Amino acid sequence: MRRYSSVQTLLFAVLCTVLIFLFALGFGWIRLPFQDGALGKQTASDTNESKQTNPVSTRGDELSSSGKAMHFQNPEGDRSSMGGTFLPVNNGARYTEDEQVNIRVYEQRNEGVVNITTEVLAFNWFLEPVPREGSTGSGSIIDPRGYVLTNHHVVEKAYKVQVALADGTQVEGEVVGADPENDLAVIKFDPKGRKLTTIPMGSSSNLKVGQRVLAIGNPFAFDRTLTTGIISGLGRPIRTDKGLVIQNMIQTDASINPGNSGGPLLDTQGNMVGINTMIYSPSGGSIGIGFAVPIDTAKRVVPEIIKYGKVMRGWIDIVPVQLFPALVEYAKLPVDRGLLVSRTIPGGNAERAGIKGGSRSEAVRYGNSIIYLGGDIIVEVDGTKVSSLADLYAALEDNKPGETVVVVAYRGKTKREFKVTLSQRPEKFQWE
């Protein structure tokens, strides 16, 4: 049997001790001091808790559900990623410049926007008049005496008008007058000593496509809702459901929904540049195509609405007939678009200007109407092409009684010009 020296025995013991130590260290039975030193002692529970901490950045510090402080990134640490600078407001919060503009305009103007509801008269089975709910819309207070600008279709046929103010007060209003051709109306209520917020009228003459605008209204009865967008187009001629054409409409992608009608379209200075009127939408909701009557049109007609209850417009004293294919073919007319002068009013401005009406010997019946053939065919009025009655309305929309316009018409195949001094447009036309 082999014998080991004392030195060999000692080395074997030391080697076994080292192997046992490394084995224990590998299984975590022994921890060295540097593992719990300067980096701080980290337990398994701390590790799991740190993994559950949400690293999403927000403003300020908040408390987690365990009560420990959760530190988040300050937004001022990376302004470039937010697309603008941050401005302080009264409550200490921070907003971008664009947000600051929206907030300022809304705070200054929202109390000048009212909610309008109407009642109309209907008839029951016994032909008795009974009230029923009418339309709803918005309006802008334009005068501290209680004058409100809105759309004509909001108050059309209304026998009772209720105006809801910013503080929730309901007051009764009355329709002062209207301009159906521009879908505008003015109503008035008694302020009863209230200090009203009014919305100043700006200008629509210098608007640009791409300019930012803001709309305030009451869509779906949600009071004083703010939406923002840009001007998408200018000078749009839009035909209403009554066949009238409103000229120079402003197109915007700011959301306009049912209930917004009559509310203000504002620029970033808080000035009204349009009156929100209608949307184009297959579904009835906003798809980003809305239209507003330019404020310059309102500034022109509102004083007359307040003074006369209507807008004083010029007229040509004729009985016009809009051309249609059957008439063009039957009478072998030289043009297929325009207004046939079926008759001139005896002693009227058209007759004095030399415009020729149709002959009684060439009268024909079409449906329930009698048309006198042989008269001039008007194709242009005051520089506007005329092919329909709506075009004639549009051509004379901004002309007053006593003004002179040039009328272009065909007599046979010869084109002629006539200077006509306009008369007052009658309330009811003879062809109605």
Summarize the structure.
With about 425 residues, the protein is of the alpha+beta class. The protein has helices at about 5-25, 45-50, 95-110, 150-155, 295-310, 325-330, 350-355, 390-395; strands spanning about 60-65, 70, 85-90, 95, 115-125, 130-145, 145-150, 160-165, 170-180, 185-190, 210-215, 225-240, 245-250, 265, 270-280, 290-295, 315, 320, 340-345, 365, 370, 375-380, 385, 405-410, 415-420, 425. The model is unreliable at about 35-85 (pLDDT under 50).
Q: Which second-level CATH architecture of the domain at 314-424 applies?
A: Roll
- Mean pLDDT over the full residue set: 80
Helical coverage, percent range: 10-25%
Q: Tell me the overall shape.
A: elongated
Q: Please tally the β strands and state the result.
A: 26
Class from secondary-structure proportions:
alpha+beta
Strand order of the largest sheet: 5-6-7-10-9-8
Return residue spans where pLDDT drops below 50 for at least 5 consecutive residues.
36-87
| Largest pleated sheet | 6 strands, antiparallel, barrel
Radius of gyration: 38 Å
* CATH C-level class of the domain at 314-424: Mainly Beta
Strand content: 35-45%
Q: What is the CATH H-level superfamily of the domain at 314-424?
A: PDZ domain
Q: Tell me the CATH topology of the domain at 314-424.
A: Pdz3 Domain
In DSSP terms, counting alpha (H) and pi (I) runs of 4 or more, how many helices? 8
Multimerization state? single chain
Distance between the termini: 139 Å
